[in-house]
Amino acid sequence: MTLLISDGSVVYAEALWDHVTMDDQELGFKAGDVIEVVDATNKEWWWGRIMDSEGWFPASFVRLRVNQDEPIDEYLAHPEEAQTGEEDPASLGLLLGPGLPCKEQMRTNVINEIMSTERDYIKHLKDICEGYIKQCRKRTDMFNEEQLRTIFGNIEDIYRFQRKFLKGLEKKFNKEQPHLSEIGCCFLEHQTDFQIYSEYCNNHPNACVQLSKLMKVNKYVFFFEACRLLQKMIDISLDGFLLTPVQKICKYPLQLAELLKYTNPQHRDYKDVEAALNAMKNVARLINERKRRLENIDKIAQWQSSIEDWEGEDILSRSSDLIFSGELTKLSQPQAKSQQRMFFLFDHQMVYCKKDLLRRDMLYYKGRMDMDHMEVIDMEDGKEKDFNISVKNALKLRSLASDEVHLLCAKKPEQKQRWLRAFADERRQVQHDRETGPIYAQFLFMHESTVLKVCPFHQTVCNIKHPSLPTALPQQQVFMLAEPKRKTSTFWHNIGRLTPFKKEREQRRIKRRALCSCLNRPF
């Protein structure tokens, strides 16, 4: 192909997957787009052109068009023409394979790719576990178990699960007629098992930090290279190998979407593939959500340290997510005195603070409410019986365990409705956490050595030797896969302005106490 391009021939490729760009030098496209390949000297990244846009794109995301003179979309739109002999049979055989209608052959190709990549992935995990981890455990003079857990996370658990998953796929794989395979049920059967990737993805930044420190010492560089050579692994650095599980969990929804595209609604596997696609998107969404909330732990500790006169337990002892915040007028019995307060709704609890009269950016702690034992009541405008006053845009919080009652009034009707939705979101989130397990309690152990310094996930890149290529391997990031990018909240951005000085010691104390509480250790 490189010779064809150098001779001046125009070479086209069809996109198999969507490519979401992560760099301004990358070329974005949708599945089905036709790309002119301009440079293919690098086997992993090619330079291509779509109309007026040019850039790098991952070669693994496309397939070359065999019949370069006619767009593949036209052939797919008229498969009957191919069967009547109007196209070159040899060319079509190369493109779609012999003896099958177009859509069935395309489904065969996708099934074969899923099976092939799954087998390759199992070998990849085996190489990591036997080629690296097994050898590292022999060198107690270089590694301890805590280091290995940080570097490799729960990849051994993933390896055991993926072997079981592959066995299930093999049973459903029809070797003689792959397009008749019914593999959707395998994904549905193991959809909860795939959540094991959440722990790995959340640990991955710490693995990169730990590995980066070790690779500054020559003996570790030589040791890891010796492990790779002994296991006869391809020439990729260890951090590249460790990124593969993150890439893999990203790719499942893409593969299933492609499989659904070429599965007839009458096919016995159609409903299962459709359900499997939704299930794997939900897995990605869960991983994305847990990652976001883990990152919030650091922000919540920073927020608490900015509050003056804090009393009682730390927010992180029970909560891991700020759901909503805003200013409300508060009235409490028995005085029913009106007070302007800033309210911060977390999962399980709501904290309210008073603004400084002179320095409006400074907050003083005034109390909290246990949302696990609170009933939220939407109030109609008019006379309120308990407080014997007229109210507007009000809602009531009544304790289910005592006589505690709070009346909260918003300035506008839409603000009140937003608060009501926030209270409903808080209850749904708490219920979800009860079903899936506490967010940070499940993973905080992985962050013990770096709990005081949360590392951004997207610092992770693989070493690609071509100096002008993109700095990330071809991948659809987990955290962009499940939902559109969130609009950045201004609340956390403004946290730094709440106090003139950052109380770093207080932040460390808060996070350390949360960690000790999670691990049942004395503070």
From TrEMBL:
It is found in: Cytoplasm. One of its GO terms (cellular component) is cytoplasm. GO terms for molecular function: guanyl-nucleotide exchange factor activity. Keywords: Cytoplasm, Guanine-nucleotide releasing factor, SH3 domain. SUPFAM superfamilies: DBL homology domain (DH-domain), PH domain-like, SH3-domain. It comes from Acanthochromis polyacanthus. Residues 321-428 form the PH domain. This is Rho guanine nucleotide exchange factor 4. Residues 106-290 form the DH domain. PROSITE patterns: DH_1 (PS00741), DH_2 (PS50010), PH_DOMAIN (PS50003), SH3 (PS50002). The lineage of its organism: Eukaryota, Metazoa, Chordata, Craniata, Vertebrata. SMART domains: PH (SM00233), RhoGEF (SM00325), SH3 (SM00326). PANTHER family: RHO GUANINE NUCLEOTIDE EXCHANGE FACTOR 4, RHO GUANINE NUCLEOTIDE EXCHANGE FACTOR 4 ISOFORM X1. It comes from the Eukaryota. Its main location: cytoplasm. Residues 8-67 form the SH3 domain. Transmembrane segments: none annotated. GO terms for biological process: intracellular signal transduction.
